[in-house]
Amino acid sequence: MTFRKPQHLTLGRLFNHLALLVLVLLWILPTIGLLVSSFRDKDQLAYSGWWTALTTSEQNDWGRTGKAEDQIEKSGNYVISGTILEPGEKTILTFNTNFWNLSAYKSGETMILKDDSHFTLQADGKYEWVSQKPFTHKRGKRIFYVANVPPSFSLDNYREVLSSENVGQSFVNTFTVTIPATIIPIMIAAFAAYAFAWMEFPGRQFLFVCVVGLLVVPLQMSLIPLLTMYNKIGTFFGTEAKSYLGIWLAHTGFGLPLAIYLLRNYMGSLPRDIIESARIDGASHFQIFTRLVLPLSIPALASFCIFQFLWVWNDLLVALVFLGKQDNQIVLTSKLRELLGSRGDNWEILTSSAFISIVVPLLVFFALQRYFVRGLVTGSVK
Amino acid sequence: MLEQLLNALLAVFLGVGACTLYYVGSNFLLDQVFADSGENSVRNSRQRAAIRPWLFLAPALLILSIYLVYPVLETLRLSFYNFGGFEFVGLKNYIWATKNPEFLQAIGNNFMWLIVVPTLSVAFGLAVAVLADKLWWGTIAKSLIFMPMAISFVGASVIWKFVYDYRGPDTDQIGSLNAFVMMFGFEPQAWITLPFWNNFFLMVILVWIQTGFAMVIFSAALRGIPEATLEAARIDGAGEIQLFFKIMIPQIMGTIMVVWTTITIIVLKVFDIVLAMTNGQWNTDVLANLMFDWMFRGGGDSGRGSIVALMILMAVIPIMFWNIRNFRKEEEAR
Known about the structure:
A: alpha+beta; MetI-like fold; 4-stranded antiparallel β-sheet; B: MetI-like fold
């Protein structure tokens, strides 16, 4: 009896461990696949799964021998020699002169061609082609081979997307959108939140209920009227309708309800005594807010900052509507979406661009996870 | 590029500066106009108290009115107007929409999303929260499952498009799902063009993102259940499974509802995933994507676009009232 219970528990525990492990793997493997792939050689990436990245893979390829002018005469025979592999780490397994029977000759073996010449290919790519008659061909002969390719990882894909695909510029554009769109709403929201939490005025309850209602109003409702308005303003002032200023203000507007809601709940939970004793000491609301409440609300401000940062950085819809598609305005998410359309099969470009677009939010997320979680919990468990 | 970043920083500087100037300046002005001295001291202090809240609120209320309140009313108006918004057409757009197969298809798909995504996210979130709380490496596990929350919908779409990648049956697969399927001897599939089921492969992406959210909230709520309650149930002989269904779930039911509705709203607004994965092709369209499409397709039709937006709003309104009711209850309890 005394033995059974712990044993039973261990089985249950084992099940717990396994179940959670399976879930965690399911959740992280897609991202790991992307990350690993983004560092792989683009040819390997296109032909083998990312899970084989660490193993040596087989690759079919071909190379050319030297031309007739490369031949030398050696004890009555004519010889062309050289290497058909570019310097690298491939090793040749089998070869042939045609590509439908690649396994005809193993490396190191000698193949006798139609004209009785002897062709020998070594594993390292060095060949020797010997004939009794002089060679006359003008173009090198094509040799098809199967080679072992060791795993290769590099930053080439990143170099390519950052330079030729303009992803670097988009990275800067995203920052340009994100920084002001994160900081400006906080200030406006903090003042409003304080008013809702600690000031007396008619309609306080009603207005705050409106803010709670606005929390869930879909962004889609705002797009058409705002776009029309922006176009009119643009025409009136003779400026571009799609500008950074426009998107900063739009993000400010869309972020405000949540900011006011979160901050008001936090500020409202500060002890009443502190604020009332400050009132009695003759401090004005403005002084209480700036000297007392604001410093005490830093955790809530931090939570909102992270929310807004992640939301703006990851947003696609607002950027598509309020920013242009030219190089100096297109943000990472739009760029990624464009690449999905135009370079849909070039996984080396997609994986590395995607990773560039998610690396900053991931860093923010892991560094400030505690604030983020706190914000989520106070924002929804109420 | 550097210049652009400097401009952004300048904007932060100017924005913050303008805000500071407004708040400090207006409060200072108020204190000057209704000064604390003189014979009207009492009346002035009452005036100040009446005006100051509005100084605090004005910028927020102004921006909210321009960016959220006005557009909602304007969208409602536009839905009764023609494509350019200048000619009143009555209910024509509405009648057109009810007969439009794309629109009906999108509503049907949205229904499936609304059922599947919140259910699975809540179920997985609960499972992870309960499992992770018992194990020493639970915190790491939670952190990893939470991670997709930080990834954009487009980024997530790239990640999953790679998982779903399809090559012919004779070649090596590079998409993990097809490789997995072939390991068991089945034919590889082009998952995102597979009629009907492709919707579910898109939903997986949102479940993958939202499970972390559900898990974090549930984890906090579960910790809030008094240990005494659980202990009492254990003494009465309840097993772990009974404990889960009979004690934990009822105790956190309120939280489950909150998470459910939050995810429901996110589902209604889902746009990026469908746009990036299929752009609504192969019968995968949803309202948010259709709205974007109608808003711009063929020069754009603000009337039809507005109708789709209103449809989304209508689905959200019950949740809005439920939120407000909950909020009222809490306020009374304070």
